[in-house]
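thoughts on both lines:
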Amino acid sequence: MPRGDKSKYTDKQERKADHIAEGYEERGVPEDEAERRAWATVNKDDGGGKKAGSGRGKDTGHPAAHKGGRKGGAASASRSAADRSASAKKGAATRKRNAEARAHK
């Protein structure tokens, strides 16, 4: 099987790679690079294409999906201190209001 041959991948793995590639493209990654990263992610999650034989269907745990939170830090860092503070105050007020509502039940 030559390098790059996708015949051993399941339909689910192919759908997964398409979905991941779309996400990269939405963030401005070129199409060929998005495709390359998507298949690398599928390989990391599933250990490559599926081989013949019973008992091979093991849960992957989706290790690559656990990296998702790393993107969130950049969004927060690009906001001003005043924006973050206002957001924190709003959240605190909501939590306080919810706690009071639960206490009165």
The first helix runs from residue 11 to 26.
